[in-house]
Design brief:
- The complex is a heterodimer of chains A (1181) and B (436).
- With 1181 residues, chain A is mostly helical.
- Helix content of chain A is 57%, strand content 8%.
- In chain A, strand 12 and strand 13 form a beta hairpin.
- The radius of gyration of chain A is 34 Å and the shape is globular.
- Chain B is 41% helix and 12% strand.
- Chain B contains 18 helices and nine strands.
- Classes of the chains: A mainly alpha (1181), B alpha/beta (436).
- At the A-B interface, strand 5 and helix 32 of A face helix 9 and helix 18 of B.
Chain lengths: 1181, 436
């Protein structure tokens, strides 16, 4: 206790950083242990009186109301005394330990730790680790000495390192190398310094290994070790112990009893263990068996009533279900089950090879030859790689137990690694790939495959199969209308099928370092072993082989970057062979069955492929921690809306796909967004050095610039072309299928489909290809909506009323029908639209509808979009209740849609006229040049935090596009304009500006006091801005001396104030618009609508546009009727009111007070009546 | 950071600020101690400067209000005319007040260092000499600022000085000077390191094409083996010097930009640590790099003088960042780099120089790699033979090979056919230019 007090005291003194560091560095658990041991060991040896006198000294020295100078002097004296004392203590204890060689194996009796009860007879039975006993005693002695604590105060307590060891152990265990795992655990445990890298999970992992074997002794010993390391056993530890006992025939019931008591004593419960624990294979059943031997009637209680989300926004959604008509899918149960099996097959193989749309091109003899060559080479490489890997592993197996790559190489079959390596080679761009990216991709591939394999090994697939097949009854057409949500259904089923493995894997995510190190190892392996004959292209008899890949450096300024390139020969083969198949990871493809509903933060979306609920950078754990802390019921609305978005079934618009592919294979078309092939690229200008010598330096520079630009253009074209090729090929592959896009979200709650290339968020081309799988009749107003939608897509008639747009559509019906009938040969009206392909698709749909016998009965699958008009400003205007602002962004009902950009442009023009009258030159020069287009981008992005600097660049770009604008005025003009745009916005959106400033300033102060900004959306999603100062992690490897990873999300680093401050307003608004979208999604779901979103653009059937619009407006009003800013301020205040303040620094105290003031003073709002939104026809249109 | 240097700096600052607490007992009695300190520091000079002393004294005597400086100019001209009389075709130029020049230098908006101390100026003049009056080489003075050195150079009889000034602030004054003298000085609004930019499309001063500059000046292209046609003097800014030296290196090997007009001699003040890096010895694990090899191959590098940082006036109000490294960095070093006549041969030409760059850069990233391994990576059959021919063992590391040997190696490599076919060769063709 004395030491505790001592440390507490030291905190009071600013100068005493020494002790503070040494004590605070310890993790909490260690801390207690440390004190405990001090009391028990060293405390006894050190003369008590000296401590007491020391204490007296302290209290005397403690300043009450003395002046600063005296206090300071005393502090320094005190510091000297303390230091001397510490030195004395150290020498005392060290010599003590050395001389007496304490031998205590049993823990002291006074202790109430976990193992005191049932595992005290540790020395009985065979010792699993022969020398352990002796070493342990020594360690216990050493922990006691303050010296060990003080000696390594700088060694950082590194979570990354812990996770890394855990990954390593898991890999060892998975590949069956238990010796290596236990060796690592022990060596780390025995070294006090290293012990920090072990967390409780590391010990649990070993326990579960022994539990599988039914051997109790090692588990007991492990409990001793856990105790010794100052850790606390958790549910997994106890469940391993129980499982082990369950496996032991005729085990001692008293032992089980003692474990149960211990669980109680630790404040845990059996129910918790069985409900929330994570089990593999038959672990759960075994543990249950053990419990049943002494409590035969035990049954883990299942909560019958799930707590519901506390947010008032969704209260109706969850409680009043009688009116709800949840949508169903137009498939029979059997069909859905078959689809599930297909998807399962795809995911189990991990990779899928599909035909590319380029397959239709004619073959030449040369191409055939090259293809054969490539296939042959691949076979050879594959064989060499497998062989070499086998050899390499054999040599590595005998190496020391340092952290090496060996365990990670035993996870999959040798040939799987070879497959992965060859897949990476064929994906590599011809210009090469940076080592870091390539290594990461390889690492992730291995990891994904490993996860799936592990799930299979845990018998999870069978269970998934059982639950899924029952789950889809919910949405199948041949069953009655569902009354529960998909998530609820899944949770019920999971509870019913509680035996067997858990579906959510509490697996340890591989850290960035682990992924990259494994990746680099594989890259090195590829460089060493993949060879190609040098004369292969000329078919000569040159037998010399050259490596397929080589490592080199590229230099960007002073920075050098490791780069992997293919040998030119290999690039040539790849190019000439023009392969017609593409190999993708399975998650790249849309799912062939409805995705698994999100039931928790760790389970949902794909069947087997690991997916994160929140997409964040690798190794960024802050969001996960926050989500884990959040009660799961509070996340239900978020999970349900994601599930709902993912449950929308899609189909390919086949006629349109055919048109696009024909354009794609015929030279493409940049204007229509179909990237042309490389053969259309500008030729790179060539030159000879002799010629160069005659050029002037201006000409030389020009030539060089031209070459650089041409190369850049080529690289761009290649990547665009490949992207389009991927998208179209995937679409072509699923052209006859119905498919689903599982969804997840970013840290602000904005939702995204998981498949990266082909999804409805993509470009005009991909959006046009997609239609809903389910059709609905157009009904009375459907055709009109289709026509209006078409006019919207053209970008014309933005300021016309709906009736006006409809009229325009009716006027050009012949053009529309011509476009639909002869898309490429007719008048091609559609090609001039803003979104040409979607417009064409819409033309076709309208034409089909018109030609059907009864338009109202025409079944349409076509999605109709409704866009928010400048959605960010809409939210700001609603937050600030700005009247003028609200009108200009259509929060108020008007005859014709308002256009904020035109309004701003008009305002800017007014300012200009005024300034021109005053004689300002630039204002005069700008006469006639200010229009909507010039200001649009800046107005749009201003809500997302664009600065004057960025705004000027945007306007500069626009002005340069105007041909007759004098070039030398551009700079001044853009500076002038951006200033005026900001002024106009300030005038129109007074509240907005104030709110934005308030958010920025709050974020700045919060970040300045060392906290990242954190808030909770009205729907209960916790958000944190994990922008921190970068930390550089060096990864040593053979290929390069090191590779540096820059990590910007380390919560131990100070926050990056500028980023925190600049990003807060846009992030906050995004979190609001995502909330609005989710609410709309949920309520549309209960109304039985098909609903998907692209952020602020909502899609539904033509029949249900009106309903969706109504829901959307209602939810907007509901959302903004909440005291959003007040809640935010309250939350921020509560989070940030307790920052440690150095009260000596006057300025800091002032700043702190300023922050509290600011946070408690929410900006005033205007007089806009929010309910008017409900009447506004053009709010989303 | 040595305590001595700190002390020196503190003393210097005090003197500069005029809060002279310590009575200075120099050889010369002085009211304002600035030059006195500087003069003492002159002991650092490697060279026993002679021209400095009388000039300095002259400058000090000259300490009078600006209004009367014109009268005094004649007087002072008389005072030194003993030395300079035969060389001057015009009135001896007054270099101006130290305080006033300092103030003007500090008004510069970009961060730069200036010479305002007349003694330092004459010292530099001496090093740029010694035969200023006879030499045909054109003297380019970059960023003269208040023009102290310019005037000193002219006073010393320089035949042709071209002042390249990048800041508009200093131009009027320099142009006035230009008009006063008889054709020995030309002032151009130009920045040496913004010559021939790659990315700019619209050319506005101070950016410029070198051929425009040289044509305007009437300087024609010269052969590489001719005598030095021009000398360039500049004070480099520590934060930019590495980049600027690289830039010159590229131009030099391609005989581009200023080097198109012959072997232009470079006289630069660079930071001491940069100098030490530039002249790192073969085998120096940290500093022996491609950059060093290329400079050593290209130029004869000569250290002329070391001058403490404090002798220069810096434009920035905040104290200019002086990088601290493993090396002492108390001084600026005046370094002369004369391009070698025999740099280009039949094997090393301007056209394959980029390949030499690429090769050395790749080799020198890890200096502990074996050279033989690296040659293997490039798939050269003749690698071992070449190594043998150069007398290198198989175990030779890339960091232990001297610049000369590298040149030989490159020349030999160029003769083997598989080198021109190797990927390295192709790679260079793709990305060889500076700025890309």
């Amino acid at each position: 206790m004395s030491l505790l007090r001592l440390s507490a005291f030291s905190k009071c003194l600013n100068g005493l950083t020494l002790l503070e560091r040494s004590v605070n560095r310890l993790p909490k658990a260690d801390h207690c242990h440390y004190c405990f041991t001090v009391r028990n060991n060293s405390g006894r040896r050190i003369a008590e009186p000296s401590w007491k006198s020391q204490k007296r000294h302290f209290s005397a020295a403690f300043p009450k109301k003395e002046d600063g100078e005296k206090r300071c002097l005393e502090q320094s004296q005190l510091l000297d005394v303390l230091e001397a004392r510490i030195r004395q203590l150290q020498s005392d204890v060290v010599s003590d330990v050395q001389h007496s060689k304490v031998q205590f194996v049993k823990a002291p009796k006074s202790e109430t730790g976990a193992f005191s009860g049932w595992s005290s007879n540790i020395n009985s039975g065979k010792s699993w680790m022969p020398k352990l006993g002796k070493r342990v005693s020594k360690e216990v002695g050493q922990t006691a000495s303050p010296e060990t604590v003080k000696e390594y105060p700088e060694a950082p307590f590194n979570e990354d390192e812990q996770q890394r060891v855990q990954c390593y152990l898991e890999a060892c265990v998975f590949s069956g190398d238990i010796d290596r795992a236990s060796n690592l655990l022990l060596t780390n445990h025995q070294n006090i310094r290293q012990r920090k890298v072990l967390n409780i999970e590391a010990y649990n992992l070993m326990m579960s290994v022994w539990a599988k074997k039914g051997s109790m002794d090692p588990i007991r010993q492990l409990f001793v070790l856990v105790e010794e390391a100052g850790l606390k056993p958790n549910l997994s530890s106890y469940s391993a112990a129980l499982e082990c006992l369950g496996r032991t025939p005729n085990c001692d019931p008293s032992l089980i009893n003692r474990i149960l008591q211990q669980i109680e004593a630790d404040g845990l419960s059996l129910d918790e263990l069985f409900c929330h624990g994570v089990f593999r294979q038959d672990e759960r059943d075994m543990a249950l068996k053990a419990v049943l031997t002494i409590q035969p009637d035990f049954q883990p209680s299942i909560k019958s009533v799930m707590p519901t989300c506390s947010s008032p926004l969704v209260k109706d959604f969850y409680s009043e279900r009688t009116d709800s008509r949840y949508p169903k899918l137009a498939f029979s149960l059997e069909e859905l089950q078959k689809k599930f099996r297909n998807q399962l097959n795809v995911e189990q193989t991990c990779a899928i090879t599909i035909n590319s749309v380029e397959a239709l091109k004619p073959l030449t003899e040369h191409v055939v030859k090259m293809r054969n060559l490539l296939t042959k080479q691949r076979r050879v490489w594959h064989k060499t790689l497998v062989g070499a890997l086998r050899e390499k592993k054999a040599t590595m197996a005998s190496t020391s137990n340092r952290l090496c790559q060996y365990p990670y190489l035993g996870l999959l079959d040798d040939k799987d690694y070879a497959d992965i390596m060859i897949q990476s080679l064929s994906e590599m761009p011809p210009s090469g790939e940076s080592l870091q990216v390539l290594a990461k991709n390889l690492g992730i591939r291995v990891y994904n495959k490993f996860c799936i394999l592990r799930k299979r090994q845990n018998h999870m697939v069978d269970k998934l199969n059982r639950i899924y097949n029952e789950y889809v009854e919910l949405v199948a057409e041949d069953n009655e209308t569902p009354s529960v949500l998909p998530r609820e259904r899944w949770q019920m089923l999971e509870a019913e099928h509680s035996s067997g493995p858990s579906l959510l894997g509490e697996e340890c995510h591989w850290t960035h370092a682990v992924l990259i190190e494994l990746g680099i190892f594989l890259v090195e392996f590829m460089i060493d072993h993949m060879k190609v004959n040098r004369g292969i292209l000329s078919f000569s008899h040159d037998r010399k082989t050259v490596p397929v890949l080589y490592h080199m450096y590229t230099f960007r300024g002073n920075k050098q970057m490791g780069f992997i390139k293919q040998h030119p020969i290999v690039t040539q083969i790849h190019q000439d062979a023009m392969e017609t198949t593409l190999t993708f990871d399975s998650y790249v493809m849309p799912m062939l069955c409805p995705p698994v509903p999100w039931t928790s933060t760790r389970f949902g979306a794909y069947l087997l492929t690991p997916t994160k609920l929140m997409r964040v950078g690798i190794g960024n754990k802050q969001h996960d921690i926050l989500l884990e802390k959040c009660p799961v019921e509070e996340l239900h609305p978020v999970l349900d809306s994601l599930t709902q978005l993912g449950n929308t079934a899609w189909r390919i618009n086949q006629p349109l796909l055919d048109v696009i592919i024909s354009v794609f294979n015929d030279k493409g078309c940049e204007k229509l967004g179909v990237p042309p092939p490389l053969s259309e690229a500008p030729a790179i200008p060539s030159y000879s050095h002799q010629e160069m010598a005659t050029y002037t330096s201006g000409e030389k520079a020009h030539l060089k610039l031209e070459v650089i630009n041409a190369k850049k253009k080529c690289a761009e074209m290649h990547s665009l072309r490949m992207d389009a090729l991927y998208k179209l090929s995937i679409a072509n592959h699923v052209r006859d299928e119905v498919f689903w896009f599982p969804h997840n979200m970013d840290f602000r709650g904005r939702t995204y489909p998981c498949p990266p290339y082909f999804n409805h968020l993509g470009s005009d081309v991909t959006r046009a290809i997609l239609v809903f799988a389910e059709g609905k009749p157009l009904g009375p107003g459907g055709l009109d909506w289709l026509k209006i939608h078409l006019v919207n897509l053209t970008g014309l008639k933005k300021r016309s009323s709906l009736a006006g747009r409809l009229e325009h559509a009716n006027a050009i019906m012949d053009l529309i029908m011509d476009s639909a009938d002869r898309p490429l040969t007719g008048k091609r009206w559609w090609q001039d639209a803003d979104e040409p392909w979607q417009a064409l698709a819409c033309c076709m749909e309208i034409t089909n509808a018109v030609r059907s016998p009864d338009v109202t009965q025409f079944v349409s699958c076509f999605p109709v979009h409704q866009d928010g008009s400048c959605n960010g400003l809409q939210h700001y205007a609603a937050l600030g209740r700005d009247v003028i602002g609200a009108i200009s962004v259509n929060l108020m009902s008007c005859e014709v849609p308002q256009d904020v950009y035109s309004v701003v442009a008009q305002k800017v023009e007014d300012f200009r006229v005024r300034d021109a009258e005053k004689g300002l030159k630039i204002a005069k020069d700008l006469a006639g040049f200010i229009n909507r287009k010039v200001v649009k981008q800046t107005v749009m992005t201003v809500v997302y935090g664009v600065t004057r600097y960025g705004g000027r660049l945007q306007i500069e770009k626009r002005l340069k596009e105007i041909d007759d604008f004098p070039e030398d005025c551009v700079w001044d003009a853009s500076r002038y304009l951006v200033h005026q745009v900001f002024n106009s916005l300030k005038e129109m959106f007074t509240g907005t500006r104030e709110i934005q400033d308030w958010l920025t300033e709050s974020a700045r102060l919060i970040a300045k006091f060392g906290n990242p900004v954190e808030w909770v959306t009205p729907l209960g999603l916790p958000v944190i801005q994990s922008y921190h100062r970068p930390r550089v992690q060096q990864l040593k490897n053979n290929l390069q001396s090191h590779l540096s990873l820059q990590i910007c999300h380390d919560s131990k680093q100070k926050p990056d104030v500028i980023k925190q401050k600049n990003a807060f307003p846009p992030n906050f608004i995004h979190s609001l618009d995502s909330t609005h979208m989710m609410l709309t999604a949920l309520y549309c779901y209960s109304a039985g609508l098909t609903f998907v979103s692209v952020h602020d653009c909502f899609w539904t059937h033509a029949l249900t546009v009106d309903t969706m619009n109504k829901v959307c407006r209602e939810q907007f009003v509901a959302l903004h009727s909440q005291p959003i800013l007040q809640e935010l301020a309250k939350f921020l205040l509560q989070k940030n009111s307790s920052v440690p303040i150095n009260d000596v620094n006057r300025k800091e105290v002032q700043e702190y007070e300023r922050m509290l003031m600011l946070l408690s003073k929410v900006p005033q709002t205007g007089n806009f009546d929010l309910n008017q939104v409900k009447e506004s026809m053009y709010f989303f249109s | 950071m040595s305590s001595q240097s700190v002390r020196l700096f503190v003393v210097a600052v005090r003197h500069m600020c005029g809060h002279s607490l310590v009575r200075h007992t120099g050889r010369q009695p002085s009211s304002s101690c600035g030059p006195g300190v500087l003069l003492q520091r002159r002991a650092y000079s490697l060279d026993r400067g002679t021209a400095g002393q009388p000039q300095l004294q002259q400058a000090r005597k000259d300490r009078t209000p600006p209004s009367s400086s014109l009268n005094h100019r004649n007087l002072s001209a008389v005072a030194v005319s003993v030395q300079c009389e035969p060389l001057c075709k015009y009135d001896f130029l007054d270099v101006g007040e130290v305080d006033e020049n300092t103030q003007r230098a500090q008004s510069c908006r970009t961060t730069r260092r200036f010479i305002v101390d007349p003694a330092l100026a004459s010292l530099v003049t001496h090093h740029l000499g010694p035969d200023l009056e006879d030499s045909k080489a054109v003297l380019f003075e970059c960023n003269p600022g208040p023009g102290v050195l310019t005037r000193t150079l002219l006073n010393a009889g320089a035949q042709r000085v071209v002042a390249l000034e990048s800041e508009k602030v200093f131009l009027p004054d320099l142009q006035a000077l230009e008009n006063r003298v008889d054709g020995q000085l030309e002032v151009v609004h130009c920045d040496l390191f913004k010559l021939d930019p790659l990315k700019k499309v619209v050319m506005k001063p101070p950016a410029m094409y070198s051929d425009k500059l040289f044509t305007d000046l009437g300087i024609s292209e010269a052969n590489w083996t001719d005598d030095v046609p021009a000398k360039v003097f500049s004070i480099l800014t520590p934060s930019k010097e590495r980049k600027q030296l690289w830039q010159l290196l590229y131009s030099l090997y391609e005989q581009n930009s200023i080097f198109r007009y012959g072997r232009v001699e470079l006289n630069f003040f660079i930071s001491e640590c940069e100098y030490q890096k530039l002249t790192a010895k073969t085998g120096d694990a940290l500093n022996y790099r491609a950059y060093v090899i290329l400079w050593k191959l290209a130029c004869h590098i000569e250290l002329l003088h070391k001058e403490p940082w404090e002798s220069f006036v810096s434009s920035s109000k905040i104290k200019l960042f002086i990088p601290k490294g493993r090396f002492s960095n108390d001084n600026m070093c005046l370094v002369r780099m004369t391009p070698r006549k025999d740099l280009f041969s039949s094997s090393l030409t301007t056209s394959n120089a980029p390949i030499l760059f690429m090769m050395l850069k790749q080799l020198m990233v890890r200096k502990r790699n074996r050279l033989a391994d690296m040659l293997n990576v490039w798939n050269l059959d003749s690698g071992p033979t070449i190594m043998k021919a150069l007398g290198l063992s198989k175990k030779t590391k890339t960091g232990d090979v001297s610049p000369e040997t590298y040149k030989l190696l490159f020349e030999l490599l160029n003769t083997c056919p598989d080198f021109t076919q190797s990927w390295l060769y192709q790679e260079t063709l793709e990305s060889s230019w500076r700025g890309s």
